[in-house]
Amino acid sequence: MALPSVQGKTAIVTGSGAGINLSFAKLLLSKGCNVVFADLALRPEAKEVVDAHQSGSPRAVFQQTDVTEWSQLERMFEVADKEFGSVDIVCPGAGVYEPAWSNFWVPPGTGTSKDSPTSNRYTAMDINVTHPIRTTQLAIAHFLKHKRSGSIVHIASIAAQLPTILVPLYVASKFAISGFVRSLKQLETSIDPTVPSIRVTAVAPGVVKTPLWLDNPDKLKWVDESKDEWVTPEEVAERMLDLITREDYVGGTVLEVGKNQARTVEVLHDPGPSGPGMTVSNREDARAEVWDKLALEGWGQASKD
Question: Where does this protein have coiled-coil stretches (predicted)?
Answer without folding.
Answer: none
